[in-house]
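Q&A log
Question type: sequence-to-structure
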Amino acid sequence: MTSRPLTGWLIACSLFFVAVGPAGSLLAQRGDSTKPNNAFFLGFSPLYAGDYKEALNVFDNVSSSAVVTANGRWVDSICFATMRGECYYQMGANAKALEQYNAAVLLYLQHSDWMMRLSTDTVVAIGPVNNDPRSSITWGPSARTTAIGKYPETMLSLQGNSPEQNRNVVNNGGTLMAQQYHPIRASEIARCLALAISRRRQILGPLGENDPLNKNLITALQRRPAPPNHWLGVWVDMQLGLAQATAGKLQDAIPTIQRSLTIGGQYDHPLTAIGLLELGRLALEQKNLEAAETYFVEATYPAIAFGQYDIAAEAFAQLGSVHLISKPNQISKYLVTAAAWRNFGKFNVLKATVLIALAEHYSCAGDVNKAGAALNEARRAMNRTGMMTGRIGARYAYQLALMEFQRGNMIAGSASLNDAVRIQRVASLRIFQTILTNEWFAANVLTERGAQLLYDNLLREPTDTDWATDPLDTITYQLNPNGTALERWFYSALERKQPELALEIADRIRRIRYFATLPLGGREMALRWILDAPETSLSTDARLQRQDLLTKYPVLKTALDRTEEIRKQLKELPPQAIEKEQYFAQEKLLEQLAEATMAIETKLGEVSLRRDRSTFLFPPLRTTKELREKLSDKQVVLAFFNSSGGVYAFLFTKEDYVYWKIENPNDLKKQVVELFRSMGLLKKDGPIDVATLENDAWKANSAKLLLTLMPTLKAGFFDNYEELIVVPDGPLWYVPIEMLHLDDGAGGSLPLTEKVRIRYAPLASLAVPDIEKRRRPLLSAIVSGRLYVRDDTETTNYYYDKLSPAFAAAARLDKKTPGPTSLLGKTWDNLVVLDDIEDLESLPYGWSLAQIDRGKPGSDLGSWFPLPLATPQTVYLPGFHTAAEDSLKRGGNGDEIFAAAMGTYSGGTQTLVLSRWHSAGDAAVRMIAGIGARIDRLPASQAWQEAIAEVRSSPLDAAHEPRLRVLGELKPPETADHPFFWADLMVIDSGIVPEETDAP
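Response status: OK
Response body:
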């Protein structure tokens, strides 16, 4: 023997006792050499009591007793990793939980032959337990004719090297280990591995099909590494079935799990409850509700029998959910009888879960008192535990919010809902899966196609199933737009040469941004549109949803009918009361309308948290194909998408489309700023010198900007079209496309408005109307205030007199209103606000739309959202302010314009006219009058185009242009041709056309 092997042999001998000490003589002296040892099970008491941090401390501390050899940790560490994962999972820490479950699977892959080392010679045949723990169950007997099997608490595992392996160590170096048997808890190791696999499927969701670790796991388990012809193979089969389910191989997974539920077809085992719970989830995903409910019920029996109270709790939670979907008008007898179980003891997790699920059943049945009692009892079980801030706490807070809304306690309900969403933002598996998709995509774990499929799934529109199975998570996801994922979804479509899909995704991204600004992620708004949108905009399915809601919640129909009656009575009164009696009558009707509206909103608050389905009708979802089909031959759409990676443009017509990328977004923004500065837009409401108006530098700047936006624009392109519909995004909301100059074909240039009619749309899907015809206005409310901060009464009167003839049935509002304009305004067809809007910092919807009651309750834009959907059909805001007025000095991403458009559109508005930089004088008033006088007989884009032409060629009334500054001997311009006077206004319009009038 050479000196080197001898040295290795001596070192190996000295290290052997250290390496195997935890499994050998050291722990034998302590009287607990079994792996995992007795101390491991001390963590289950706090776990089942909901003290997750305490349980985590226990599992962390006792993990030091795990076997650690020169080859690393042994298979018993699967238990420690899995149970640490369970603590993190219940606390909502998905990333940490997945890390632990991954560790458990990796340990198995390293020691996948561990069952082959078990000694089966001394294991007696499996028989039934002497005292069946299921006898104490109060929710009835199991329908499965199986017994609870009696399994050995420990089995002997042969560890160490074979004599041949040790001889090889002596000759070649390495660790010398003698063979000996060690007692291990094989059933607990197998259970923990199965639980880790099952949890990974839950956490990974659709990513499981792409998970490389799971693929390796399936390969290892398919070798069926268990003693041949032994019941231990059933546990391996169960683990294989769970791994196949993670991979989406359900045709293999379901029968594999089903045949692994018992030993010998008659004895349940420690993995049975996990298998039944998984089968229930799979049945639910396949919408087989009856089978799902059966599996969930059956999972509770072996879970209780084997002391797996966390599995029993999940089974009851899922059972309660499925029962509400399949039998919404019935209270589950299983939950009622389970709540009376006397063996809860310190199993607070199980008790709280059952009571929270039962509370929702009572709530749906209309028994608020019993729901409250159940929640109070659940709260007592949760007190002084970690449940309140984890997954169970989110469900509790959500049910508490639902109950408070049902009682009419909107403030308390909103507070509880905020608590639920705050917890769920962290615990949400779908949010975590979206984040993980981003990470995998960046790390090239996913292909472009794989990433796109995942984004299609995760970033989907809320489905009926989403609302039915998990309304809390659906609402939370709606409130949590993931910008990185959304953009990568967009990029993946472009990478796959699918520009039409990319345009649809860009529209969805804008839509999701809008939903995230609304309470409950747009859930309430979706219900409002289902209940009150025009019949012509409803699909067959949406009509059925309306019918279902009005039938299920008759208070909604009663209150909606009442609002319509009140609105009719209000329309019979003048918009601004002339006599005292009219004022009081109006005030009384508005109080009644407020009561009816509050009744609707209170009920909607409750319904929003329930499992009723609701399609998001506004803004509509349209494919690019559907959108192009709705265009006429003479329309062209130019849609922009502003991403972190650049600005993309999509130009499409009925027959064709093209897209391009604006390579340097920073240069684009500089050009926008340069254009505004050359026009004198340096300060909010600042003076514009005549010298600035005489300088034509803006023409060259505008031509340069147009070529940047449309680099391949050819002369004569717009000769083929009558209307250009622009969908801006980001800072491009501020760009007045209509004033940008292009080659006129004769060596000169002209603004785009002279070549084609223009209008704007907040989304591509809103470029075409849902409503065919613009109704004839019966009432135009004109708020007569100070359009410029220093306007006096004489100026105010002058503007009103000039403006009012342009609007049908014009009514002046310049005095205190008898109630909120958000209610009074539900009778107006047109709203013109001749006032300086100074509260726009309260974005997105906290600023006053009508301004006359600014600062009072019910004046803000958000107060117009409640039913009935009745914002004025056309809204004019010449006193609106945006970041354009100071050349984006304070930044600007277009949010104020987008919010104004979406906020008014969401109430039914079809046309919004607002100012970008508030010229605040006679030209602005004449522009509004020019549009208003034409829009009832012409499309909005044509009315705007003609108004621009009229104002540009008309004399400039310098005395009524408060921002115009004349210095020295310079004289004011003779006409209002400079775009400062006419390009401040933009028309955001759906494309609705006027009703045809009868021929004279």
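Response note: The first helix runs from residue 3 to 19.
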